[in-house]
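**Sequence with structure:**
===
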Amino acid sequence: MAVSIFVNRLYVLTEEGKVAYDEHFHHGVNIIRGENSSGKSTITHLLFYGLGGDYNHFVAEARHCSRVMIEVGLSDATLTLARRICKDETGRVLSQQPMTIYWGTLDEALTDKCHSETHGYQSTANKRSFSEVLFQILGIPIVQSDNNITMHQVLRLLYIDQESPTSSLFLYEPYDEKTTRETVADLLLGVFDAKLYDAKRKQKDLEDRLSEVKSDLRVFGRILNQQQRSPEYIQGEIDKKDKEIDELDSQIEKLRRGEKLEKTPVSLTEQMKQEVIFLERTSKDVDENIVSLDYDIQDTQLFIDEIIRKQTALRHSVSTRQILGTLKLEYCPECLSPLPQDKPEGVCHLCHQKVENQDGITQAKRLVQELEFQKDESENILTDDMAKLMQAKAKKKSLKAKLRDVRKQLDVQLGKGNSSIAEKIEDLNFRKGEIKGELLQYYTMLENAEKYAQYLESKKRLESEIEITKKTIKERMENQEARRGEVMKKIQEHGVYFLQHDEDRQRNFIGARPSDFTIDFSNNIFFLRDRNYKYSASSTFFLKLVARFSIFFASLDIATMRYPRFIFADNMEDKGIEVERAQKFQKTLIDSLKDYDSDNYQVIYTTSYITDELDHSNYVVGEHYNMQHKSLKNVDL
């Protein structure tokens, strides 16, 4: 399913609650026209802000507005996005404001007749950011790393503003990271491979865990010698000590047969009983904990599998609705008579009832993003439970060995008789006590050795997983580069077409070839043949328009691109570009778009240099603004 953004309606309220702006937009080309300083740029700034951009340099009229609401179509789901324009005590507009998402039309949002939820600019441990929710709806992968990608970052490549330097491909930011631009470009060009990204994250996670395991092994290596690291060796030493105790018990029994001793003190027997009881209880608790963790792990995994199944079913449901929504029956299935084809959109040809296909898609997408959050939480719980299970199993083996030994000693103690050779028996019991003390140390060593063995196993497993992951990354990166080459080739073809249809102001534009045109997302530049060649300000701006619209046009040709078939530009004649040149570019743009279905894209741009033909066409939105009749109404300065 193609990623798409459509602005259906922009609605702005003043601080007094009056309507400052309310216009409907259509699919295809939308032109906002008017004289300079009449508020055209303000509309695009409010549009950028309402869609999730982080903008706070509003003019005075916009600062007197309180709320921006936009009804949008996001990959066939209809929503309304609302953001407040909040200011501090000095009147400065605050940045990174939250967004309320209404799952319905703007009219439904204004009357509170649809589900809504508010999300912050940044995500928290318990709630997703509005960017993550919008990406989920659009079908854009959510990138969570050192350079999290937000809606603002995506809009930097959809919005052509006047304030950025002419040579800047992206909307300019003072603290811009190269990796951020690269990731945004990969996402929108459709070359970003979610599985490759997951594999890279997995590799980093595996390497971090391997580093921790190696650190733990080094710690054990400093405190354990070679023999102490072997559970088999330590178990053998425990068995030897048990045998020594058996031999001592045998000697004591022989002595007891020869002479009757005083009754064994009850306190020693009771003490051993209490130790057995304690170890049995502890062992039982560990066993129950293991069983409980096993159950929880299985239950959590089943829950995750069920979430994935539901998400897949919902996505299939959305796809089915979209496909069937485009099919029209030509014959009645009952009598096979031809059906009338003059019914309006949204009305069933058979029963003449209204078809609410769009509402179902919107609700399905909302459920998909809610399930994604539940899946993330469940996966975190699963990881924690598996770590606890590993620790519990290591402790169980040590407890079982210790319990077995103490039970044996209790059995011997309970079977003692009396002997007159008290001194010899006391010596033998003293030696038994020493061996028991040694056994306690061996039990501790056994537990450490089991942990060491598990760390060795984890190290081996992690190293194997890292090698497999590296192989996956290599293969997917090769495929990614192949897709990138295909997309860039199409961008170059469109770019050269626009350059060759420019006014004859720049000779090397007219004679350009596709291989001459370069867009460097990583370094935020675009150039023709020589990256160091300097053009006039107007020609550089024209080249920027060409670069940005070439990406947009490529998205109309390549279905795998995630660029949302949406672009909006503030002023098509910036930096002193001549009237004729600006008007020719607009004509070339609109003529080129006639080759595409207008229901599949949206272009919004402002201009002061509109032709009479366009000024009276269906492309225009709103009124023709001037200094006495500006775009924002009911704003008292």
